[in-house]
Amino acid sequence: MSFRIHKDRYLYQQSDTFNQYITVSGPLDLGYGQFSYDLSVNVSGSYIATPIPYNTTEIAKYCSYSGSSITILKAGTWKFAYSIQLDKSGGGTTFVDIWIKVNGTNVPRSASRTTVVGQNGENFVYCEYVLSLNLNDTIQVYFSSPDNTMTAASFPAQTTGNYAPPNEVPAVPSIISTLVQLSI
Looking at the domain that runs over 31-183, which CATH code has it been given? Predict the structure, then answer.
């Protein structure tokens, strides 16, 4: 037996013995969102777990943010992804751990570790997860490092000199988080 969406309004079911159209109440009504933060965030101290906040909603349906928490407004299976631009002002080579929490609890096996080399040694991290989330669940991204100069760094748009039109480069947020609801 196989299923597929047909013209956004019907689910077509096929087996060896019959074909059938099933009316559904309308197109799938799934959520999505993208949130970012346009300022830099320093770790709170050596080995201190620090949440990364948001201050911009790029687009959102069935999710919202407040401070460092993204709240789910429709239960289901969601894909959650983040990208973080890392930097540090201190010298040497230092690692940074990044992970997610749901409802204030660490998500098992969600941590990633990368190394930032030297002062102004920018590094980019991208991770994605598939999560089963309930109404009003919250998601947060945390980072920690033994180097208290570690930063989730933002950079302004580049629009002058070599970056004059038409070569402008958009601003770099310290974090961009994206959610896509996969099922209800």
Answer: 2.60.120.40
